[in-house]
Design a protein that fits this description.
Layout: E1 2-9, H1 20-28, E2 31-36, H2 44-49, E3 57-62, H3 69-84, E4 88-94, H4 104-113, E5 118-121, H5 126-134, E6 145-149, H6 154-157, E7 163-167, H7 172-179, H8 182-185, E8 188-194, E9 202-207, E10 221-227
Length: 230
């Protein structure tokens, strides 16, 4: 049975943004578990750490891309059983940070229920990384912030928050243009980062009508919407 599990955030995509502690643990553990979304498909998280993990025992865990929690539940349990039945100290890697919209959290809950020791090693989360790529602060002073997965309930939060982070920007342009009229759109500045820190990274910054949302319609995309101060 496994001795201890480390949930390690490997950051947004740049190997140089791995924390020193993440590197240390990755070099020490007996096995590194790598999430994949489809059999035969490479892991984005693994590509970040592959130079560090050279020679390590690598085991893939399948987590299909689906919103059906009942369908996914069996994959969470399969991953949990695989991890539990491994030996020594092990790590599960995840892009960004393990505490923010991470598949690791579902396995984490199962491990804790079974009293298996888990330690989380934080990574740089995409909202912070993308703000740096856009060269803007997320919030200042007494400004407030909300993070929305795929722009869920966006219409409720526009106007209430100074900064809105949208994780995954699919159909974001359509949503914004259906919610806001032309005059309202000029009251917001939006920055979009697609595949941040990768070779094919795309960055756009401007008013809503100035953004070509078709160019940033990726799974690995994030938008930061800031209300312009009058």
């Amino acid at each position: 049975m496994v001795d201890k599990v480390y949930g390690i955030g490997v950051g947004p995509g740049d190997e140089e943004l791995l924390t020193l502690k993440a590197i240390k643990i990755l070099k020490e553990v007996d096995t590194i578990f790598v999430p994949i979304s489809k059999e035969g498909k490479s892991s984005f998280a693994y590509n970040i750490i592959k130079n560090i993990a050279d020679g390590k025992n690598i085991v893939e865990l399948l987590f299909p891309m689906s919103k059906d929690r009942e369908y996914l539940r069996k994959y969470w349990h399969n991953a949990y059983k695989t991890i539990k039945n491994s030996n020594g100290n092990v790590a599960i890697i995840t892009i960004g940070d393990p505490t923010l919209y991470s598949t690791f959290s579902y396995v984490w809950n199962l491990l804790k229920e079974d009293n298996i020791p888990v330690e989380v090693i934080n990574g740089i989360a995409s909202p912070f990384a993308c703000a740096s790529r856009l060269n803007i602060p997320l919030v200042e002073g007494e400004e407030n912030l909300v993070v929305l997965p795929q722009g869920k309930d966006l219409e409720k939060y526009l106007g209430l928050f100074d900064t809105i982070v949208v994780m995954k920007t699919k159909k974001l342009g359509e949503k914004l243009k259906s919610i806001l009229d032309n005059e309202q759109r000029d009251k917001y500045l939006i920055g979009v980062v697609s595949k941040g820190f990768c070779r094919d990274e795309k960055i756009q910054m401007g008013k809503i009508d100035e953004i070509n949302f078709d160019e940033v319609n990726e799974y690995l995309s994030l938008a930061i919407i800031k209300r312009i101060k009058e």
